[in-house]
Amino acid sequence: MKLIGITGGVGAGKSQILSYIEKNTNCRILLADEVAHIVKEPGQPCYDRLVELLGEDVLNEDKTIHKARMAAKIFADSDVLAQVNAIIHPAVKTYILDAIEEERKKAQLDFFFVEAALLIEEGYHLIVDEMWYIYAAEEVRRQRLKENRGYSDEKITQIMKSQRSEQEFRQFCKEVIDNSGSLLDTYSQIDNILLRNRV
User: For the chain, N or C: smaller number of CB within 10 Å?
Assistant: First the structure.
């Protein structure tokens, strides 16, 4: 089983690419954002510590954590944000590493893909067999974010500034998929990469 890390800037189209990969390979895909939601659920590793840190007023009636209330507390205080990240990020990594180990024992998959915007920052490039960078030109990404998510120019600029530069992404990644053009072109690039990895 080959372990691949998928990363790239906001609006590059990572979800679309992973959807294509999922349909065309014998693989499992884990999204770090989805895992971050799982580890915050009642009974999961981060739940009690987050409730203790943020207070019970962040809870819904069913005792799950209310996302908007939690976000409001986090973004109002950078210290709280740092503490929340220190709770969630290690738990996400542990969950992903356990899932990888589980699939290695089963020995049924050809690929295991891990996707996260912060793969490099969290040290996943040291764990995976190789990293793939999903690239798209800045103007293409801006257009997608406006159309698909309704983001303002200011919000897009702010997010892009907080992420790594194209050069930094490329430095850590073995493969670069250019998702600036048509989906057919993107899928053709993926097919070629997958073919190389199967040889």
Answer: C
